[in-house]
Amino acid sequence: MSGFVGHGRAEVVDAAGLVTVEEHLQGILDLLPAPDPIELRLSDCLGLVLADFVNSRVTLPAFANAAMDGYAVIADDLAGATVDEPVTLTVAGEVVAGGGWSPDVSPGRVVRIMTGAPLPEGADTVVPVETTSGAQGAVAFHRAYERGANVRRPGEDLTPGQPLVAAGRRITPADIGLLAAAGATRVSCLPQPRVVVLSSGDELVRAEDEPHPGRIRDANGPMLAALIKQTGALPFSAGIVPDDRKALMYAFDTNLGHADLFVCTGGASAGTRDLLPDVIDALGEVTTAKVAMKPGMPQIRGRIGETPVIGLPGNPVSAFVSFEVFVRPALRRLQGRRDVNRPTVTAVATEPLRASAGKRAYLRVRLAREEGRWLATPTGPQGSHVISSIARADGLAVIAEDVDEVAAGDEVRVHLLVD
After folding, report:
1. How many domains does the chain contain in total?
2. Are 83 and 145 members of one domain?
3. What one-character-per-residue DSSP string does 337-401 give?
């Protein structure tokens, strides 16, 4: 099974035995089932992808109403009004938003009106209160207004049958406001994927426990759960699973009923205790891959029943980078999103960025904006165990397989670690 045991990887890994990042990612995406939409309350839909088009069934505004506080008038009554020679009219009453009956407006008579209140019968214009003067029973108008000024007309915003939100759109707070205004209280969306995180390794202890000699705290489990939550999916922890075939099988079996995806960390390499591929193969199907990338060369993909499984390396940086390259796109695909990858920017390297020829390198960098361009600076040592290098990073500088160094001052593509 292992070509690595007893040798350095540089000695035993031939470039011909590597698969590209794109090939492995496509293999993962091909495993994913088509998500089934569910109907949800509007309050539960933020960030989810709409499964069906939603059209308006209402007219909005439903009635003519005032766009501001002022007076409902007949525009013709104000013809010729000026600052020095205002037109004075009688105030016949008042109408407020949500109020009931209001007096009609007729020539020589106006009604005081509040924003959102229905336009009284006979009125065709609203004059802002700030442009008037006078006592309570009569008001002076100091300028003329065009008919219809400051009036919200029925159907000005929405009409029946008008498209509101398109299928495939990720629902925003503004969309929720629009749908609520149209009375669409439940809509069909693609649900949040449920992702079970499994950390394997005899050496692992929980973050709250004190590790004995030879043991380490599990950083990958909490980190991957946080990354999954950040994508809008729902993480579930299977806990720390020892390097034991029965324990691994039990972890998969007991979590299969509520998993849309398994994300495993550890056991992906070629050591004698890396049992994950054999266990997945016994329960379903598995593919192990040596991907032409650094960090993160050993990768696993498979399926147990209809549930995809992604296996990531155990080193924290390798797990983090592999999540960005493979898991985040898979989760976005399960969410129905078209933008499966985070955006990239072009930046200028502030110091040399070195890579291994034949592998795509992902170097942790901090970005700064200067004179209209992005600058990329490494966050420190780039070893796959240096977890502080990712905590300080804004992005991953991506260096192509056929490049072994990006010189200071040269441009490099940077995969952003923020949306």
Report:
1. 4
2. yes
3. -S--S--EEEEEESS-EE--TTSEEEEEEEEEEETTEEEEEE-S---TT-THHHHT-SEEEEE-T
**Domain limit, last residue, from 172, 190, 208:** 190
How high is the mean pLDDT in each 10-residue block of the chain (419 residues)? 42 74 98 96 96 96 96 96 95 90 93 96 96 88 97 97 96 97 95 96 86 88 96 95 94 95 84 81 96 96 97 94 98 96 97 94 96 95 86 96 95 93
Domain range for 103: 65-152
> Quick count: other Cβ atoms within 10 Å of Cβ 293?
25
Q: What is the pTM of this model?
A: 0.85
Q: Give yes or no: residues 180 and 224 share one domain.
A: no
Q: Which residue, 271, 300, 334, sits at the end of a domain? A: 334
Cα distance between residue 168 and residue 49, in whole Å? 6
Q: How many C-beta atoms surround the C-beta of residue 369 within 10 A?
A: 9
The CATH number assigned to the domain holding 117 equals 2.170.190.11
Task: List C-alpha distances in Å: 61 to 64, 70, 103, 152.
Answer: 7, 19, 21, 7
Residue 2, domain member (yes or no): no
> Which are the contacts of 248, defined by CB distance < 8 A and separation ≥ 6?
200, 241, 267, 275, 276, 279
**Domain assignment of residue 117, yes or no:** yes
Count of H helices and E strands in the chain? 9, 29
Reference 276, options 250, 304, 300; nearest CA is 300
Does one domain contain both 177 and 195?
A: no
